Amino acid sequence: xxxxxxxxxxxxxxxxxxxxxxxxxxxxxxxxxxxxxxxxxxxxxxxxxxxxxxxxxxxxxxxxxxxxxxxxxxxxxxxxxxxxxxxxxxxxxxxxxxxxxxxxxxxxxxxxxxxxxxxxxxxxxxxxxxxxxxxxxxxxxxxxxxxxxxxxxxxxxxxxxxxxxxxxxxxxxxxxxxxxxxxxxxxxxxxxxxxxxxxxxxxxxxxxxxxxxxxxxxxxxxxxxxxxxxxxxxxxxxxxxxxxxxxxxxxxxxxxxxxxxxxxxxxxxxxxxxxxxxxxxxxxxxxxxxxxxxxxxxxxxxxxxxxxxxxxxxxxxxxxxxxxxxxxxxxxxxxxxxxxxxxxxxxxxxxxxxxxxxxxxxxxxxxxxxxxxxxxxxxxxxxxxxxxxxxxxxxxxxxxxxxxxxxxxxxxxxxxxxxxxxxxxxxxxxxxxxxxxxxxxxxxxxxxxxxxxxxxxxxxxxxxxxxxxxxxxxxxxxxxxxxxxxxxxxxxxxxxxxxxxxxxxxxxxxxxxxxxxxxxxxxxxxxxxxxxxxxxxxxxxxxxxxxxxxxxxxxxxxxxxxx
Length: 563
What we know:
Cofactor: Mg(2+)
Number of helices: 18
Keywords: Aminoacyl-tRNA synthetase, ATP-binding, Cytoplasm, Ligase, Magnesium, Metal-binding, Nucleotide-binding, Protein biosynthesis
Binding site for Mg(2+) 2: 414
EC number: 6.1.1.6
Distance between the termini: 25 Å
Strand content: 25-35%
Mean pLDDT: 94
InterPro entries: Aa-tRNA-synt_II, aa-tRNA-synth_II, aa-tRNA-synth_II/BPL/LPL, Lys-tRNA-ligase_II, Lys-tRNA-ligase_II_N, Lys-tRNA-synth_II_C, NA-bd_OB-fold, NA-bd_OB_tRNA
Low-confidence stretches: none
Shape: globular
């Protein structure tokens, strides 16, 4: 492992601390009795406090120093005075340990008294400090110039997502997002618990990936010697519990879909699903409006939320638009009752990419997604989906070609999906069989037939309404974040590129190629100025690592950097 100069210096300091008998990573409990926030909110001049946190800045002025300590609730100023810390003749704890062996980023404990500086800053007068954890890597802290301009911010998305632990330390707004995420989930729990619904847990590893149309992740259980799937939804298990006699159940579910990644999709995501007996989708729309009003108030103190350039109003009521009407409004085409072949040709005329594996449901979904969805900025219930799009949904009471389903659109994206749940076991079996035909046509997102779920329905499930709300997208809306990666602590990333391991000879050649990009082989050899043996080894090493390629143009050999 190659270490930077700063990392080497910090390791030297680590050894010096140990040589002085100071354990840089002590095991004993540290008796914290206050935080930066509690001190400021309940300030008492002269009060003795014990705090712990990360040293984030300091200004050493001889025998005195002001510094900032950051804990879980914020930052507070601390004042180090040599004679307060070292009351006897030996001043080494301040002169050597504090001034020379502590670094920005170190975690320390402080015992001291509160006082207010002449400029009114609430501060801790340090009486004693304790090393709790030596930081061996320097934090990427932003810097301000004399004009107040900020430089060296830690704002590269890939680095921030890979090193979220650093992101949380140096970017306070990131922490605020995740605190708000917890407020949102707590708000949902409070809303449902007050109604008497039970929070439950259902299997993540499932023998059949049911409850949604999506491509699953496949794994294998060695002891049982069977394939298992990471769940794409928990719907069918929650409905089994309704069959079993619960009136209302909900779950915050980690679901997994083996599909693409973008600003609104991560292969692992969180959904809250709720199922309530003796209700329908109209009741669920009313309930969802009340829930989202409460969430907005709990998270932001208002029902109006700024998302990008839009102000979104979560106060009820929300518009309700049938999906086929929405398509007619935004395309001018009435697709109601249109045969599959004609629908496919219509989609093509609208400029959509379609293929023969797509049935009526997929085609309508594609038309709505591409031509209509982005128009719905304010919360809107898109209702009454065709039966082909909704294999788990009850047939519409007024039109047998439709189902009692809605999707809630906010800011041009789906936030929730809900049904009057299909509880006719014979109808459900026929719908599953239709999905099987789609699978045989090549649709790898079609639903599997879950025989055990059908057996459960045959015992009788009461009329039920269910909903799934995408928690990650909900948090994006409530925190004004445009990317799902901003609201996940640890989003899925591509494997981290390993740093290049180059020999001295390879480095000489590679540095020339970085500036030249493409160069004649003989010219590169002359510029490298290496012995024949060193040159041969260096060029072989560069090409073996696929950093450069050698090829011929006419009679001349060239070397080109591979991007």
